[in-house]
């Protein structure tokens, strides 16, 4: 019996060598080989929830460090969390293992390039997830996101935070009501007014403006008549300027 492989390449080689003779009739795997294969797979199984916990811990440990090494660790760990929470099951678990507090902490940092990553992480957590949207809104993440969004000039931070806001608000009546109550339209159009003040700025932010157009279009279809009246208080002065550059 060969030794249990310690990496995926070793396991791949075993499977390839075991399956090269296609003319051979299928035979039941003997108990020793079955046990060996099971142990090989178990030895390479990664506990993804534990991976999320580790990345959260790394971020917290390095958050108040100023050296480049700490910044790199934080950036890598947030990226890891973004990748992991692409899985909707892990996204649900994220909020239960300190993820909510982490999002609020990251958004509470001084002006930071992490805002873009944090917005994207938030988007993963709440996208098409009504329960996660409710938890996030009830804990103030919408208000925090809107406040940060209103202060941004960096296009990457604008894009990331807006991704979080968009995912948080769309398809959720509760979040839409909170968006209106928090003057979300006013915040959005004030940012748009700033970004469309010149042709140069419009050109620089074209992709972002197109995303906003799509968001507004979706909101038009989802909002109630009463909510749309709130929209119209701010929408008129910006409509022509925003859509003419599509």
From TrEMBL:
One GO location term (cellular component): endoplasmic reticulum
InterPro entries in the record: ARM-like, ARM-type_fold, Hsp70_NEF-Inhibitors
SUPFAM superfamilies: ARM repeat (SSF48371)
Molecular functions per Gene Ontology: adenyl-nucleotide exchange factor activity
Name listed for the protein in its UniProt record: Hsp70-binding protein 1
Organism encoding this protein: Schistocephalus solidus
Lineage: Eukaryota, Metazoa, Spiralia, Lophotrochozoa, Platyhelminthes
Gene: HPBP1
């Amino acid at each position: 019996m060969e030794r249990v492989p310690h990496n995926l390449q070793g396991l791949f080689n075993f499977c390839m060598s075991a399956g090269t003779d296609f003319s051979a009739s299928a035979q039941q795997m003997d108990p020793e080989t079955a046990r060996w294969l099971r142990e090989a797979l178990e030895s390479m199984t990664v506990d993804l929830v534990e991976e999320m916990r580790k990345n959260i811990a790394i971020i917290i440990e390095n958050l108040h460090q100023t050296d480049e090494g700490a910044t790199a660790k934080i950036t890598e760990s947030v990226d890891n969390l973004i990748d992991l929470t692409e899985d909707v099951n892990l996204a649900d678990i994220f909020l239960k293992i300190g993820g909510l507090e982490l999002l609020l902490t990251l958004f509470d940092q001084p002006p930071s390039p992490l805002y873009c990553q944090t917005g994207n992480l938030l988007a993963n957590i709440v996208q098409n997830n009504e329960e996660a949207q409710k938890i996030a809104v009830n804990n103030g993440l919408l208000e925090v996101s809107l406040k940060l969004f209103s202060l941004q000039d960096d296009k990457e931070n604008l894009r990331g935070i807006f991704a979080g806001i968009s995912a948080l608000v769309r398809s959720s009546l509760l979040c839409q009501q909170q968006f209106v109550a928090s003057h979300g339209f006013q915040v959005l159009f004030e940012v748009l007014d700033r970004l469309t003040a010149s042709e140069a700025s419009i050109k620089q932010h074209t992709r972002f403006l197109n995303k906003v157009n799509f968001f507004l279009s979706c909101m038009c279809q989802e909002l109630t008549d009463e909510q749309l009246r709130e929209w119209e208080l701010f929408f008129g002065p910006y409509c022509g300027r925003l859509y003419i550059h599509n």
